[in-house]
Amino acid sequence: MTTFRGERVTLRPVRPEEFDVLFAQRRRHVDDWGVNVDEGWLRERVAHSGEFHHSELLLAVEAEGRLVGEIQARQPEHGLPPGVFELGIEIYDEADRRKGYGTEATALLVSDLFLERAAHRVQAGTELGNGAMRGVLERLGFTFEGTMRGYMPAHDPQDYALYGITRGDWESTRGAWISRS
């Protein structure tokens, strides 16, 4: 099972008793994204959290001794070329945002992908107006690569900003990154 410790956050497997929190967070997005949450599918994800399972690594973001969010690395079979990973992260409560938890969690996971999982590229998308997440990605050396028009399924499809970082980019900037412990 995968666990990473940084200065302020720990990335670790999601605990079974945290299922209700993840399920509630997913349900919040049903109206936004127009995607229903399959409880059985999510239970399987939680049961396999901390390991790559069905092309995804799901980890809890813990800070101050409590669950504050989740982060995933995805490499869907036939969806991305070998060595290319896509990130997803959510810090659940507004009060926990802008404290550096997302930056540190992203840095820890991206470092693992390059150091241990033969990544040659990591990419992430976010809503065009999500200045906080765009700032996180830019501080970590990701490059804005363009706008994915109508990307997020919703009642009114949303445009997303696509960011990417290559192994060479990461190697030239990782001195500023959080090291794995």
Tags for this entry?
181 residues; alpha+beta; 8-stranded mixed sheet; 8 strands; 31% strand; globular
Task: Record the SSE blueprint.
Blueprint (H helix, E strand, L loop, with lengths): L3 E2 L3 E4 L6 H10 L1 H4 L5 H9 L8 E8 L2 E9 L9 E8 L9 H16 L4 E7 L3 H9 L3 E10 L5 E9 H7 L8
Parallel strand pairs: 5-6
Antiparallel strand pairs: 1-2, 2-3, 3-4, 4-5, 6-8, 7-8
Question: Could you explain how this protein is built, in words?
Answer:
The longest helix is centred in the middle third of the chain and has 16 residues, at about 100-115. The protein has an 8-stranded mixed beta sheet. The protein is about 30% helix and about 30% strand. It is an alpha+beta fold and about 180 residues long. The chain is built from 6 helices and 8 strands, in the order ββαααβββαβαββα. The chain has helices at about 20-30, 30-35, 40-45, 100-115, 130-140, 165-175; strands spanning about 5, 10, 55-65, 65-75, 85-90, 120-125, 145-150, 160-165. The two termini are about 15 Å apart. A hairpin with a 5-residue loop joins strand 7 (about 145-150) and strand 8 (about 160-165).
